[in-house]
Amino acid sequence: MSFPEIRMRRLRSSDAMRRLVRETTLSVNNLVYPLFVKEGKKIKEPIKSMTGCFHFSPDTVAKEAAEVFSLGIPAVLLFGLPDKKDEKGSQAWAEDGVVQQTVREIKKTATSLLVITDVCLCGYTSKGHCGILKDGRIDNDATCELLAKVALSHAQAGADIVAPSDMMDGRVKYIREALEQNGFYETAIMAYSAKYASAFYGPFRDAADSAPQFGDRKGYQMDPANGNQAMQEIALDIEEGADIVMIKPALCFLDVIYRAKQRFDCPIAAYNVSGEYMMLNKAAEAGLLDRDAAMLETLYSIKRAGADIIITYFAKETSKLLRR
Ligand code: PBG
Prior knowledge:
By secondary structure, the chain is α/β, with parallel strands linked by helices. It is built from eleven helices and twelve strands.
């Protein structure tokens, strides 16, 4: 059968018809909203490089988190900006570190909200790399030991999910062992498994003050030209004890998300990163496109590719749009 028996336009004839046959659903349930916290009190300052995003302090972020939860968003992802940086990034695992304080604050006000913490050293080390240096190179195993300390300190503060974003080999194993040995059997690990050395993190590095002071991250983050290697990274992280695996960024890597979804049974997360967010914002500001429509189209594409969870700076706005 072909035309005229089959006319594809029949199922596009009205909004109700289009809704009836829609294959992909966007739900607020699958969104995660990132938040940036720095030391201090009563802070809520706009982040210059990221329209609509703010730097909070532990006291003000708790209020924001409660609002996020009231919009139906089940989880936030925390990034900390410490006052002091050093060679080892020791503020990253300090008991009274900015993220640890924040987790405790949020757990007081938004008790049912899931708190995910980014586990990395780049914002905490003086050189801005995701690991510690030895003879000018990133020392993989020594970094893993520190990352396990960071993750454990987040779990002790009350984090529900820890999310290592450093791309060291074996870090999920180190973290899982530390959590098990200390009785944190229920703390989940969301691993940034296929994290690419991407140009699209630009606005974030400004927001998190985490740009590398020399060189780049190509020695640990993945080459954007690779897809098979992403499958290998994900398989290894699952084997080491990851509960959720992530692909990051999302838009240039929709094929990787698709392949991961076909191949693995655990939840797949995708990070709609700062550069993807700001590209759209700037185009909308210039009057080149309809912001809401472009935002939803973007999120649909990530979901359609196979992401179960989407981490996005659009989460709050999307939740409001989806309500209408
Ligand atoms: C830290 C980290 C980065 C992002 C999340 N965690 C930056 C980087 O690796 O350079 C990027 C998030 C975004 O761009 O929205 N390792």
